[in-house]
Amino acid sequence: MSFDEKVSNIAKNIKLLVLDVDGVLTDGGIYFDDKGTEHKKFNSQDGCGIKLLELTGVQVAVITARSTPSVAHRLDTLGVKNYYHGIQDKSVALKELTEKLSIDLSESAFVGDDVIDLPAMTRVALPIAVANAHSFVKDNALMVTNNPGGSGAVREVCDFLLKSQNNYDDLMQSFLK
After folding, report:
1. 44: part of which helix (H) or strand (E)?
2. Average pLDDT of 129-155?
3. Residue 144 pLDDT level (bands cut at 50, 70, 90)
4. I want to staple 24 with a disulfide (CB 3.0 to 4.6 A). Which of 15, 20, 84, 141 is the partner?
5. How many domains does the chain have?
6. For residues 102, 83, 67 and 105, what is the CA-based torsion angle, rounded to 10 degrees?
């Protein structure tokens, strides 16, 4: 993951992680069967990272431009309560979300992959692009993951936040007891 000391200092104060779906929680592919039913592939380690992060009190939310039952189902199984779908201007949903949770934008991070994410990404303290993001999005992020979306990028971000907030080691050790 590309970052510097400034990014680590910002990460210490993050209370809200906002994720895009297509290209971040998934590989960006949109798969249809013969009946036109849409399918998506999610990474199980990303899901575990989300659950671990939430155990430490960091809120996780999703803002996506598309609406699909498979995403709603996945987020429900992960216990993600803040899910905004069908949103074209993600900055509007982000503002509503931070007000609802009483979390400042300076305590928020957003992970995106394409230009539609930039209006929200550029308003938070920690804008993050996945490895397979559009180059313009990477240019406007403070951090770029090593892993592409749908292949552990979200887990990478979750682990980074856990480490920055000194929660990683204790959390990992709890699995050895």
Report:
1. helix 44-55
2. 97
3. very high
4. 20
5. 1
6. 40
